[in-house]
Amino acid sequence: MATEALIERILAAGDGPSASAIDALHELLDETAIDDGAAPKSVAEAARLVGLSAHTLRYYEQEGLVRPARNASGYREYAAPDLRRLVFLTRMRLSGMTMTDLKRYIRLAEQGPGTIPERRRIMLDQQERIRRQIRELSLALETTEYKIRAYDGHP
């Protein structure tokens, strides 16, 4: 599923100003629904569970972001850690994180705890990008609202 479609699902899940987008995201991509003891999922099952297309899962694999095991027949099998990784990737893409930063972050995560300071820096940089985008969108909203008020009473 494209990021735009996921955003639409999350926004549609909110029931008003008190509804939290992050709560909607958690509901749509509930990590607790990923059972460590469950049998691995096929591409189609994994895609359905995390709300992505099978094409996106294959793309993430091709980019080295997830590495599902293969069964004896050569089919991908997504275990619980793979599914949790997909949830994380989906959340980060939703936040606007670039594929370059995601790849760098995943490479670092796979190297272990010694890379935590650098991973933290990636997340702090992403946080600042998100905050800037929120400020920019707030300004755009204020401008739009100003124009609407200016047009009140004029066809």
UniProtKB/TrEMBL annotation:
| Domain of life where this protein originates | Bacteria
In terms of InterPro entries, this protein maps to:
DNA-bd_dom_put_sf (IPR009061), MerR-type_HTH_dom (IPR000551), MerR_fam (IPR047057)
- Keyword annotations of the record: DNA-binding, Repressor, Transcription, Transcription regulation
Domain HTH merR-type: where?
A: 42-108
Q: Sorted alphabetically, which Gene3D superfamilies does this protein's record hold?
A: 1.10.1660.10
Q: Does the keyword Metal-binding apply?
A: no
PROSITE patterns per UniProt: HTH_MERR_1, HTH_MERR_2
Q: Does the keyword Repressor apply?
A: yes
Q: Which residues cross the membrane?
A: none
- The identity of this protein, by name, is MerR family transcriptional regulator
Q: Which organism is it from?
A: Paractinoplanes rhizophilus
